[in-house]
Amino acid sequence: MRPRSRPPRPPDQDAAHRSLAGTAAQPLYTALERAGLHNLTDDDHQAVRDLTRTLDPATLRQVMSWLERTRTAAAALRAQERPGRPVVRRR
Questions:
Q1: Are 52 and 89 in contact (CB under 8 A)?
Q2: Model confidence over 46-79: pLDDT tens digits?
Q3: φ/ψ bin of 34: left (φ > 0), alpha (ψ from -120 to 50), beta (otherwise)
Q4: Which of 29, 69, 74, 78 has the greatest number of CB atoms lying within 10 Å of its CB?
Q5: CA 51 to CA 45: how far, in whole Å?
Q6: Mind spelling out the 3-state secondary structure of 30-79?
Q7: Does position 5 have pLDDT exceeding 60, yes or no?
Q8: pLDDT value at position 33?
């Protein structure tokens, strides 16, 4: 799952995918959104359903933890990349 440059899916279609996945998938969807993955494809929604069906709750929590750590690390990298004030040398 990676960010897409396509326009966002209509809210009703996204809601339909979420209802198919069930309440067990809601924490995973929240983790994906917090990680910046908002525009999910049909394959991405299928992967969420498969994960919630096949993984036990502890492993699913671990996946969500990885997403959160990735989000935190990406935010820290973005903070480091911000340019500081330019240095002006006077003659």
A1: no
A2: 888 888 889 888 998 898 898 888 888 888 888 7
A3: alpha
A4: 29
A5: 10
A6: HHHHHCCCCCCCHHHHHHHHHHHHHCCHHHHHHHHHHHHHHHHHHHHHHH
A7: no
A8: 85
Q: Average pLDDT, whole number, for the chain?
A: 78
Supply the pTM of this predicted model.
Answer: 0.59
| Contact partners, residue 1, CB within 8 Å, separation at least 6 | 32, 37, 40, 44, 47
Tokens 């990680």 belong to which residue?
35
